[in-house]
Amino acid sequence: MDNKFYITTPIYYVNARPHIGHAYTTIVCDMMARRERMLGKDVFFLTGTDEHGVHVERAAQAAGKPAQQWADEVSSSFRRLWDVLGLSYNKFIRTTDAEHKRGVQEMFRRLRDNGYIYKGKYTGQYCVFDELYVDSAGPGAPCPECGRPTETVSEENYFFKLSAFEEKLLKLYRDQPDFIRPETRRNEVASFVRSGLRDLSVTRSTFRWGVPVPDDPGHVIYVWLDALSNYCTAIGFGSPDPADQQRFQRYWPADVHMIGKEIVRFHCVYWPAFLMAAGLELPKTIVAHGWLLFEHDKMSKSRGNVVRAETIVEAMSRDALRYFLLREIVFGQDGSFSFDALVQRYNADLANDLGNLASRTLTMITRYFGGQVPYPSPTEARKPADDEIAEIARRTISEFNAKFEKFQFSHALETAWSLVSAVNKYLVENEPWTLGEKQDDVSRARLGTILYTSAEALRVVTALAHPVIPESSARIWAQLGLGEIVNFKLAELKWGQLPLGTKIGKVEPVFPRADKSVVEKMQAMEQERRTPTVETEKKAGAAAQPAGRAVEVKPAPAPAASAAGAPATTPAAKAGAGPPEGKISIDDFAKVELRVGQVKLAEKVQGADKLLRLEVDLGSETRQVVAGIAEAYAPELLIGRKVVIVANLAPRKLRGLVSDGMIVAASVGEQGKPVLAGFLEDVPVGAKLK
Ligand code: MSP
Description:
Elements: E1 4-8, E2 12-13, H1 20-38, E3 42-50, H2 54-62, H3 67-84, E4 91-94, H4 98-113, E5 117-127, E6 132-134, E7 151-160, H5 166-175, E8 180-181, H6 183-194, E9 200-201, E10 203-204, E11 212-213, E12 216-221, H7 223-228, H8 230-233, H9 242-251, E13 256-260, H10 264-278, E14 285-289, E15 292-294, E16 297-298, H11 309-315, H12 318-328, E17 335-337, H13 339-369, H14 384-405, H15 409-430, H16 432-435, H17 441-465, H18 470-479, H19 516-544, H20 571-574, H21 586-590, E18 594-605, E19 608-617, E20 622-627, H22 635-638, E21 642-646, E22 652-654, E23 657-659, E24 662-663, E25 665-668, E26 673-676, E27 688-689
Parallel strand pairs: 1-3, 1-13, 2-3, 3-4, 8-14, 13-14, 15-17
Antiparallel strand pairs: 5-6, 5-7, 7-9, 10-12, 11-12, 15-16, 18-19, 18-21, 18-27, 19-20, 21-24, 22-23, 25-26
Helix pairs in contact: 2-3, 2-19, 5-6, 6-10, 11-12, 12-13, 13-15, 13-17, 14-15, 14-17, 15-17, 17-18
The structure holds 5'-O-[(L-methionyl)-sulphamoyl]adenosine (MSP).
5'-O-[(L-methionyl)-sulphamoyl]adenosine is lined by residues 10-13, 21-22, 24-25, 50, 227-228, 259-260, 263, 291-292, 299, 549-551.
């Protein structure tokens, strides 16, 4: 049996500081890596940063820094966070590493030598963010991926014969149904490929921040060919060193590429085509997960709702965050994060359920049996309830493992926690604390059986949960007197292996309860953390962020009165350093994010004569906006109309409906009749006004 396990995260763009969305992907991989190690596999867990491309170059320019310095800074903030989270990666790759660049050039050479690269000319629309050519679109058309306006370019490039792989890819999806998980993503990819593949431009000549094409340094290699190759270069592909080559032989192909759902096409179409063209084996499985939303909204810079993982680690613990992400979010689907939900889940499952089970069981073994695991009586002191727990535990082990194999992490944990609940109920029903007060032999035998049963169940759950909550499970394991949990072989987990007479360690609470003040603390920390980074990140983000992705930086706070023309009242303004009385600076104005939106739905708000509820497409996302224009506009006449939206206004509630943005209108006449702002020429949805 193949004893290696190679798992990768996507490599993260260095144009935004990391947040819990990025942490989510990496934590899921960390958890899988830990589990495979416990199963005795030789694991290689790779993560890193994606640092080339025009959007990184522009982000650096906007921050006033050389690209390399900018990339160094942001890349280290990812690495720092992974360390704060205690992630067990084996390698952190950067696409600016010399070994990686050499490997990418080798990949390009192979594609060219194998006849899959030719030179051609492209004139048309180009999305700078996605580094994507947008075929059959007119000037200024929005990018189909991110909604940003495209730019017109004319370039001579090298093309990859992607069209030659249509049939091969479809056959791959058919023959290896597990190549893309979950199934819905596979169907989407297959229908995309079925609709026809065009050759792909794989070099750029309009900027320099990338890996030069071998023998033609006027061109740099397309950022996705560069980035995807990291999965091979990180383990030695393209190196002349025999030790590196051996490592590549050992670990390639990857067992799991874990990705977010928005980059499925790059991984499931382009990547296997590149690999086939290069004559390399294909990864075994590509798994796409959903997005982490904040309080049901997408985390985004324009909403200012990006949450930092550091806050949670500091106010609670690494394990609290890990458990929440893996238990609360149904893997594969979008899931919501909120501080309240985090604390609730932690208190219910960890502080109450598992925490109680551990502290009751261990404290009673200490008190009634001098800290030694008692003997489960085979005699009349046994009851069916004891065997029921044993039976549930046996079933839990096999169900947990089966669900895990299917990437159903939250369901697997649900199963394990049913065992915890069953044992807590068993304790309540059998009242070992009452038996503990009696000295007769039968009571002692019964007490020993109950405490053995619950300690053994605790051992089983702790072992299963270890990859998810590594630190707290290690502490429970040590308190159970079992030593270092990392030495435990998960494949051998069976009911009834807790050695009798095991000496319990010092019993200490593992999951202190979190109260409301913890939520408030986290909220305050986030608020504070956002403030000082606003300017730097806003600048970088404005140049670099895809409006349609979850990966985004914090914006400037919603415009205060200054953006609407009120006098500047900062100390600097008063001292004469800012704009004159009654004026705002260009920076103040830049804080207001005005965008072109298109009304997709308009309807009256019940019980409010003046209000309409609108759903407005901003290119990358659809927003609900509640506007006081019902008396001036019939809803049906608004559908399809392009309007101007203040996109970074803090959301507020009107008649119980969240209004997430403001529609811009002139206020005309004494009654202040609203007249919507519009355009004489056609404008792409999502375009920014400045
Ligand atoms: N650089 C590319 C990937 C190249 S891989 C060869 C990229 N980077 S990214 O930084 O924009 O996003 C990387 C990953 O971060 C996403 O695929 C996803 O896994 C994760 N996430 C970023 N924001 C997220 C959420 N809000 N929720 C869940 N995952 C998120 O795309």
